[in-house]
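Notebook entry, structure prediction.
Reason for the run: the old model in the group folder had no record of what sequence produced it. Starting over properly, with the input documented here first.
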Amino acid sequence: MNKAAERLYNGFVKENPTFVLMLGMCPTLAVTTSAINGLGMGLTTMVVLALSNLFISLLRKIIPNRVRIPAFIVIIASFVTIVQLLLEAYLPFLNKSLGVYIPLIVVNCIILGRAEAYAYSNPPFASLFDGIGMGLGFSFALTCIGAVRELLGEGKFFGLTLLPDSFEPIGIFVQAPGAFFVLACLVALQNYIKGKRKKAGKPYEKIGSGCSEDCMNCSEQGCSRRFYDENAKSADSEKEGK
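New structure, fully documented this time:
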């Protein structure tokens, strides 16, 4: 499997940000009242994630470690502003529907997490596809949640009525508690599938987000060692040189 395909598969299946890593729960639970809202939010996040990953990777040798987080936020915020202006111009109905959750993409932990864990220490090509893969996984998850909630809560799918008039919509599914119910059921389903695949000899417990460490079982050495221990060593070597 080549690098691009590996990063796409990683974000879509192995490290799906919603169903596996459980990141970005605020927009996941808030905007998925319909399939179109979930898809729109997911694709918007994917564009910002892919572009921010690319630019952070291109600038990784220029951005100092000590100010990398503020630099990441400035880059991410710039792309969020561009995307929001484009939505206002060409998709105003979607912009109005998603509301404040578009500006809040700036602080979405998926985007900042991929910048920190992957883009800052990997080449641009791989970082771009890492962002696309994570974005597609996020879009797929939000669309699935929104589709189930819309179907059960309104009897519709992408705005089209599918169920007969005799169907009584279950109103709770388009309310906040419905998001928790649907998310829990979908996560349970993917855990069941993973359990089946594990028995077939395909375990998925280890989640390493590009730093060669197992993030789910991290001994609190991975990221700190990568960013701080190296700096300490370089500082010591500079002192010895002087």
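Summary: Residues 124-154 form the longest helix (31 residues).
The old model has been moved to the deprecated folder.
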